[in-house]
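Researcher: Predict the fold of S-(hydroxymethyl)glutathione dehydrogenase.
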Amino acid sequence: MKSRAAIAWEAGKPLEITEIDVEDPREGEVMVRLVATSVCHTDAYTLSGADPEGLFPSVLGHEGAGVVEAVGAGVTSVAPGDHVIPLYTAECGKCKFCLSGKTNLCQAVRATQGQGVMPDGSSRFSLNGRSLHHYMGCSTFSEYTVLPEVSLAKVSREAPMDKICLLGCGVTTGIGAVFNTAKVERGATVAVFGLGAIGLAVIQGAQMAGASRIIAIDINTDKFDMARQFGATDFVNPNDYNDPIQQVIIDQTDGGVDYSFECIGNVNVMRSALECCHKGWGESIIIGVAGAGEEISTRPVQLVTGRVWKGSAFGGVKGRSELPDYVDRYMKGEIMIDEFVTHDMPFERINEAFELLHAGKSIRTVLHY
Ligand code: NAD
Ligand code: AHE
Ligand code: ZN
Ligand code: ZN
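Model: Structure tokens for S-(hydroxymethyl)glutathione dehydrogenase follow.
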């Protein structure tokens, strides 16, 4: 199969739009025709060269939606014509992780996924005979892609793909982190660091959970209007203060917030996010992804005195069993997605989508195949 795709040849370089070859799905695999994809900051992070798992050349992209084109032997849960959302967090339902009831981090295909190949160790992508790596088990920056069956959520055919593609990462990650990881309760106070799609989705989740105060924090004040739309009640630009931002939040909240979320990927901000939590019970959730070699630190007394540091991947959501319901809730008007889409473009303009994200001018750019 020939497919339009954007190739990441090397770190820090724009993607090249070209036609690649995509092999048929093998046993347990599914070929999907993407209808829409968006660019998440994690794609930009990997393209920057900071991702220790980053491989080149590769076909990036992990926030998409499409239609099943063909299935390999033994595939039973989806069929051609089904509408699907690719999952970078698979759900096999059988591994130790899936059976634990404690995590969404299925490990069935995680090792090979990190090596940029399918579970059998080979790639389905090539250009002029040269093999290209897969990315996060999804590679949504190709019109046709191949995924393991366990990496697909089958969703309603009624839902617009150019919106529900955002449930493949950003929107689900933020809302899920609020409900599954932090378990924010009614009346709680919340601080959100970073107001991209992830931070805004956390704000949406916090409002749904009934938080009494939602403090939106960003150095780009253009993001505040959008944060207000999603339910933020307070707005803080750290650059307006001489004190460390954790002290500013502590002063504004009678000792600190009940929950904080780091949605940037900055290890210094992760520390601030922990330390602005209330003594005795405050919980800080790391969502942002930091580069190779970066480490977090704080004084142990911060934890000894009751603050809790947690992390969240894909919002703790089990994609195959839970994502169809997220789609249905969007269709019923219970989850806002449209508001995240600040730009729509043909797929060929994908490099502009990266530029807008880096410039802080977009929340999500949806690319149409
Ligand atoms: P984004 O670039 O759209 O948003 C980041 C925001 O942080 C921007 O508004 C920016 O102005 C702000 N920011 C940057 N430095 C800041 C600082 N020092 N203080 C306050 N604000 C600052 O990114 P996004 O797509 O929303 O992704 C956010 C992070 O979440 C990234 O690190 C991404 O890799 C990560 N992510 C993690 C998961 C997961 O499952 N854990 C899922 C998706 C994305
Ligand atoms: N490859 C990176 C890890 C990046 C990371 O933490 N990814 C998140 C999803 S980001 C989506 O935008 C995740 O799901 N992590 C769980 C996992 O298994 O990687 C690195 O630093 O090695
Ligand atoms: Zn993402
Ligand atoms: Zn599993």
